[in-house]
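Handout, page 2. Input:
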Amino acid sequence: MASPVDGGDRFLAADIGGTHARIALMERGSAGQPTTTVAYRVYRCADHPHLEDILRSFCLEFDAHPRALVLACAGYLHAGAVITKNLVWPVLLQRLKETLALEEVWFLNDLQALAYAVGHGATDGAAMLKPAMSNDAGAGPVVVIGPGTGLGAAVWLPGQPARVMATEAGHTQLSARIGIEQHVLARLAQPGNHVSHETVLSGPGLHRIYVALCAIHDRYPSLLEPSAITERALEGRDEMAREALSLFCGWLGSYAGDLAMLYGASGGVCLAGGFLFQMIDFMRDSTLVERFLDKGVMRPFLQKVPIRVIDHGAHGVVGAANWHVDMHTDIGVRSGGERHRCIDL
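Output:
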């Protein structure tokens, strides 16, 4: 067992997605110094009966006794429960607090945490999918989009201090262009029912596109996992997989362009996710950028907006930890005021 890593300046940061739970033990830096990662692990959510089991396993491995947890999780908070359809178990903040003997638990959306990390330099070393066609790019809001088990989106807003706005833009209405997109949408939709962008712009969504295309072309859908579809498409070994990934990229470009216009994202669009980071060359060769730009009279504005791709990795837990420290540190250190009180959830 690892040596004890308890301490008053150490706390847990967790980034919980539909597939993976990323847990870190973080340590506050002294005045003016960054927060550092003491320990970090990634768990598969489906391998554990609840979130408490994951956090307890982490603490046992590192003999840690944290008093606080900052939780970044897909979904939104209502009456002490995280509302999401992408987790295999419920997340109840009070139960987390009692089961793990924590003094404080804070919550923020997982894409909100990722956007906070982007504002703290997570795009350093990011892959450039589309450069800015202007010298003044980078001064405005940044939209962060994360296709994974679900579809998350958040906006980083510059200022003193900078702010991050969580959104549920993944649940906005999906639109389809005349042609194959409409045929796919017809396979996914029930008459009169809402179909969200998340329905196609996610791992399960890519599989839905693939199954719909197989039905349209009278092919047997032999690939059962989104990862298999991506792998076969990138290798050029499956025509239906390649067409599915191409449609995914086109829809992602249109969606990113819509959000860039909606939030005036002159600072750029950041696409986040491990599986996106594996298909950068495919995205460059796809219609993604052209669909991003194809917004009529708004094309000149979007030409100035860069598109970057980052691997999700540990950025979520680091962003959550930095949010926690910035929001709940002693304001007296920063501005001579009283300590900022956070609602104890």
